[in-house]
Amino acid sequence: VHDVTNPPLAARFFAYTSIAGYETLSLSGSNLVPLKDCLNQFPDIPVPDSVKSYNAELAAIMAMLHTAQKLQPSGSLLVSYESRFIDSCREIGFSEDIITGSLRFADQVSKAVLAYARADNYNKTTTYRRFEPSTQPGAWYPTPPAYFAAVEPYFNTVRSFTLDSASQFIPEEPVVFSERKNSAFYSLMEKNYRDSLNEDHQTIAAFWDCNPFAMQDNGHLLIGLKKISPGAHWLGITGIILKDRHTDFVKSMKILTLVSIGLMDEFICCWDEKYRSNRIRPETAIRKYIDADWMPLLQTPPFPEYPSGHSVISAASAIILTHFFGTKNSFTDTVEMRFGLPSRSFVSIDSAAREAGISRFYGGIHFMDAIENGLSQGKKVGAHVLGRFGIK
Fold it and tell me: What sign does the dihedral 195-197-200-204 (CA atoms) show?
């Protein structure tokens, strides 16, 4: 939130940070499957010979903090948090030997994970040719109020964690664009345009907005509204469920890591399709072909429409979480309360994912086929991530 990080990049931060904690526990003798057996090109990280005394859980937390400090632009803000955290460990009885050993262990794992991150090709994407919006009918074009440039057009070139390729789970082809009033695409536009939003629909759209690019137009000035990303929302849900179920540290680390890895690979698959189909957003299409004054309830994010990213990552996260917690698992989502929105309760994890998907239709930023096929793509990616960890 502090860095206004875009959704795919945020997922990358979350994944490598979680991986550092997971791998620390794996090397410490827990029953976690080694990541070199699960992830593409993951290095063989040796157990530090020089470390004799340490606490595995403390080392895992430190490895996560050290990784996040280096990955994120605002990572330096975590330094003071780390200092306070270590002081709290001293207060409850951790010896200096244990703290020092844990920090050394964490440092070795974090350095290896950061080297793994540097080799994933992400840094190269900033050197590629700037994405130029197409002027062809039906192609995506930047939307008001800020008319941001396309976000992460080359994210499909980043090394994934579990995929054979970015196009491994290509969704069904989107409805073909057409200006004809009797076409399937025009029907999609009509559905968005004529949707009558009741109060509950508006609440749902706002709750799942998760748009870090939202801007408030004050006439002569655009003001950025700080919001979490969709991936952050699902990691927040994961944390709520883990806490409610009193899940132990090792299992919590495993589940958080699988969800984080899933987020990264889901965005790679989704973004691969977004810039292949490069489909126009409802806001652009409806204002051009139906009503020049129409506005969606939510601000349109700055990237192509198909498929719905929130649908993809919600479905995949739900598949992973449902494996561990079952299909009849009610919970209350309080993630957005700190941003001024009330909590929402769900009878199951899957029902939350489906609501996240339909929220994009209520918000006016996605056509219905992008939601339905996005949910389908996400389920396949989530199941695949579980499979790479030997979970069927």
Answer: positive
